[in-house]
Structure formats: structure tokens, C-alpha cells
TrEMBL record:
GO terms for biological process: formaldehyde catabolic process. It is an enzyme of class 1 (oxidoreductase). CDD domains: alcohol_DH_plants. The lineage of its organism: Eukaryota, Viridiplantae, Streptophyta, Embryophyta, Tracheophyta. Belongs to the zinc-containing alcohol dehydrogenase family. It comes from Herrania umbratica. One of its GO terms (molecular function) is S-(hydroxymethyl)glutathione dehydrogenase [NAD(P)+] activity. Keywords: Cytoplasm, Metal-binding, NAD, Oxidoreductase, Zinc. Residues 206-337 form the Alcohol dehydrogenase-like C-terminal domain. Residues 34-164 form the Alcohol dehydrogenase-like N-terminal domain. This is alcohol dehydrogenase. It holds the Pfam family ADH_zinc_N. Homodimer. GO terms for cellular component: cytosol.
Amino acid sequence: MSTAGQVIRCKAAVAWEAGKPLSIEEVEVAPPQKDEVRMKILFTSLCHTDVYYWECKGYTPLFPRILGHEASGIVESVGEGVTDVQPGDHVLPIFTGECKKCRHCLSEESNNMCDLLRINCDRGVMLADGKTRFSIKGKPIYHFVGTSTFSQYTVVHVGQVAKINPAAPLDKVCPISCGICTGFGATVNVAKPRKGQTVAIFGLGAVGLAAAEGARICGASRIIAVDLNPRRFEEAKKFGITEFVNPKDYNKPVQEVIVEMTGGGVDRSVECTGSVQAMISAFECVHDGWGVCVLVGVPKIDDAFKTHPMKLLSERTLKGAFYGNYKPLSDIPNVVDKYLNKELGLDMDKFITHSVPFADINKAFDYMLQGIGLRCLIHLDA
Ligand code: NAD
Ligand code: ZN
């Protein structure tokens, strides 16, 4: 029986207050409006960005809210004007969109800074009418980055829905919708190490390890991994990393350690921590003359990046990468196809280290806060 046009009642994990465990509630999910898609979420995984907005340290609080942005699912129904996807399509919701009309989407140089659908962590409502599609007994529940995937059904703008090959296993491709593309793309699309070059990766969560995989696939000769959590090094051994550095083991800045290890600095570095200190180290450890550093981590609201301008004048390059420089709708279906054809070179099983039923979603938060494992897959139907 079709549910199109009707309110759907389903389970969602609601964040009522900053830092308090999510609670599984029955929510009402309104039908999609113009340019919107309602989808059934089958799998979602936790990314550190969800944790920042749940902890809300320094960010504007917006509660009650349904978090979540790394996910996979199936279109249930579509709103007026939607022709790109239809019920039954397999899709990945993407936290940043592509309207295909604005100056960014039309630019050959800009990839994913869409004027309309660029990530917005502070907006908790839909663009069509400034309202939420989620409610509990009439009380509105806010959205998160337009995706809110910690719900069995969610409503997303069509410009944030990537239609993928239905042959792709929805559990395995779930982390492609954020962490994998973010890290992998930061290396292969932005840092672009040449064969034989040295690469430093700061932060060994799923994003950093995807960046390390990118370096391996580009043919890097040395991949130096930096993390403060020694537990991360065990997991990272499965990822072609050649050396590990824990800044805590040295009584000098880690950039000096890396410069010494490499006789002048690495050719490329990719920062995937969210720590401004690591961002500065990642920049200062690249070689003068040609070194390129790419920042990926989401900083704290009042962070400031401080370095001596001479570091830049001596021909180092500092870049930032958002969503791995991929265009969310135009590129992601190809990334999924490449994964299926084994051309991407990534084994998703290495990234999905834990899996829990929906009722245990708070365990995924515990794992991330304790730095245990990489991605924890949450089964919304279980
Ligand atoms: P994660 O928590 O799983 O991994 C981060 C790792 O960084 C941890 O292992 C931690 O121990 C390490 N770390 C923290 N401070 C460090 C320091 N000073 N030096 C060295 N290592 C340090 O997180 P994740 O989900 O892999 O995400 C990584 C970062 O990427 C986060 O900041 C996240 O918000 C960001 N992110 C950015 C985008 C984007 O498009 N730019 C998209 C997704 C995630
Ligand atoms: Zn993310």
C-alpha cells in the first residue's frame, strides 16, 4: 500500500539536549513538498561532525533535533517538480547539495559550494517553507544539514539526493555519502600526490584513513600517519601506512619531527582531525618549494590558524577541501560505480568496524568519543 502523500509514523533517534543520549521516539514525518524527496533510511553511520553538533560546544544549540548525515536508503515518495528520482530508487543523502543552477554549480572551477544547498549546520528547517517535516505530537523537531538520517524516514531536498546503482550493497556504500569521499577525495582530487612522493596524514578516523588509502592508490612511497590516540595505530595497520607518529612521544612540535624524518618535509599532507594545532602542524611539515597541505577537519568556532607568512612565501600551498572536492550529485554515482567495479581500490569492510541495531545508536557515540573503531553502521530496520 502506497504511503505517498500521507504522514508516516516511524522511529527516530531524537537529540533533546546537547550531549544527552539520543532517545528513540515515534515521530511523524510529513510528505515531501516541492523539490523534496522522502526516503526510507536503511543504514546510517556516525561521523564526527554529528558528534560536534550533538555536543554543541561553542555551536548555536538547536534542539530537539534529528542528527545524522552519512546514510543510504530508498526513495519512498517525491514532491512536486521532482523528476530526477522516483520511488524505489536507491540513493545516498548528501549533507551538501547541488542545485545545478547557481554560479557555483555552473562554474568549471567550483565543485561543491552550491549557493542554495551548501551545508548549513545552523538551519533546522526545510527551504521550501521554513518549517520542519518531523514532529512529535505536533511539536516540531529540527533537521540537521538537510539530511537527518537518524530516522527510519526522512525528507531531503532533491539536490541533496544522489541516485546510485541499485546493485550497490546499501550497507557497504553508506560511508561513501560522507567520510570516505571526504578523505579519499581530499587526497586524490586535491593534494594529488605523485607516484613516489611522501604524504603525512593527520588523524586516523575513517576520514583520515580514507585519505591514506588515496595516498596509497596514488603510489605514495611513504605514508606517515599522525594521531594522539595510540589505539588508532592498530586499526590503521590494515591501511598501507608506512610509519606512525604520536606527537605525545616527542618533546618538540610534531612538524619538526616530520621535517627531520623526511629530510626537509613531506610532499603532501592531509589534515583530518578538526584540531587547529594539527592543522598548523600539517601545513608546517610540508616541504618548501612544492609542498601542499590540505585541511579537511571541522575546526571549533573560535579557532584561528596562525603560522608565519614566510612559510607560505617559500612556495608552500595551503588548501581546504570540502567533501573531497566532489560534486555531490554529478560525481557520487560514478564513485559508487567505481567501487562496484573494484576500480576505486577501497575495501569498505575495513572502514565499517562496528554495527549496531537502531535501539543501540548511543553505543556508536560512545565508540567515537572513546576513539574505538572507525565507522559504526546503524541498522535502522533492526
Ligand atoms: P574521528 O574522530 O573518527 O577521527 C579523528 C582523529 O583525529 C582521531 O583519531 C583523533 O585521535 C585524531 N586527532 C584529534 N586531534 C589530533 C591532533 N591534535 N593530532 C593528531 N591527531 C588528532 O573523526 P572523523 O569522522 O574521521 O572526522 C575527521 C574530521 O573530518 C572531523 O573534524 C570531521 O568533522 C571532519 N569532516 C570534514 C568534512 C569536510 O567535508 N571537510 C566532512 C566530514 C568530516
Ligand atoms: Zn560527515
